[in-house]
Amino acid sequence: LAKTTQPISMDSYEGQEVNITCSHNNIATNDYITWYQQFPSQGPRFIIQGYKTKVTNEVASLFIPADRKSSTLSLPRVSLSDTAVYYCLVGDFPSNTGKLIFGQGTTLQVKP
Amino acid sequence: DAGITQSPRHKVTETGTPVTLRCHQTENHRYMYWYRQDPGHGLRLIHYSYGVKDTDKGEVSDGYSVSRSKTEDFLLTLESATSSQTSVYFCAISETSFANEQFFGPGTRLTVL
After folding, report:
1. Which residues of A touch B41 (CB under 8 A)?
2. Does the beta-carbon distance from B106 to A43 stay under 8 Å?
3. How many interchain CB pairs under 8 A, A with B?
4. What superfamily does domain A9-111 belong to in CATH?
C-alpha cells in the first residue's frame, strides 16, 4: 500500500491561497491520488481526484508532478469555513487491488 | 447528499455487552465500509464489503464482525464491547472501488463504559 506523508497542521488567513503537499514516494502505476475534507462531527467529503498533471474543479486544484511522488492540493482564497482536516490518499483504481489508508490528515486553521 | 443513514447515532453501553451498528444506503452502491475514528489516529478501516455476503477485513478488524445480507444494509457487530472500542464509527459507500469517491454517513458515537 502506498503510504502518504502530509503536514500535521497548517495555518492561513482568509483570502489567501493554501497549498497542502502530500508525499507518496512508493505510489504504484495504477494508483490515483484523492483528497478528502472533514469538518468536526462530520464524515469526510470527497474534494478532488487525479492521476497526473493538473485537475481543477469548483472547489480546488490538484497538482501532480511527472514523477507522481508528491501532490499538492491548492485551495484558492480560503475562508473561515475551509477550516477542516484534509486527507491525502492514494489508491488502486479501477482494479481495486488495494485499500485506502486515510492517515491523520492535515488540520487547516483559517484565521480572520 | 448520498442517501446514507447510520443507527443509532449515539450509544452508551457497558463492557462485555454485544453491540450492533447499522448502515443503510439508498444509492445501490456495491461497496460499503466501516471506519473508526479516534484522536491521533485519523480514520481506520475496520471491515468492508464488495457485494452481498462478500466482506473482508480492514486495518483494525480484531473484535469486530460484519454482515451484509442485502445491498442496502451493512451491519457492524462488537461481540463483546471493550473500552478500547469507544470511538466514532463512520459508514461509507462507493460505487465501484476503494479509490472511487466514497460517501460517508453521519457517524455513530459509541461509548463503552
Report:
1. 104
2. yes
3. 69
4. Immunoglobulins (2.60.40.10)
Taking the Cβ of residue A91 and every Cβ of chain B, the question of whether any pair is shorter than 8 Å is answered with yes
Q: How many domains does chain B have?
A: 1
pLDDT in tens, chain B (113 residues): 669 999 999 999 999 999 999 999 999 999 999 999 998 778 888 999 999 999 998 889 999 999 999 999 999 999 999 999 999 999 999 987 767 788 999 999 999 99
- The C-alpha atoms of residue A54 and residue B19 are separated, in whole angstroms, by 45
Alpha carbon B79 to chain centroid, angstroms: 14
What's the CATH code of the domain at B75?
2.60.40.10
Do B76 and B21 form a contact (C-beta atoms < 8 A)? yes
> Looking at the complex, does the CB of residue B41 fall below 8 Å from at least one CB of chain A?
yes
Residue B59 touches partner A, C-beta closer than 8 Å: yes
**Residue from B49, B104, A25 nearest A33 by CA:** A25
Q: How far is Cα A94 from Cα A6, in angstroms, rounded to an integer?
A: 24
Task: For residues A42 and A27, give the distance between their C-alpha atoms in angstroms, rounded to a whole number.
Answer: 29
Find the CB nearest B98 among A41, A44, A91.
A91
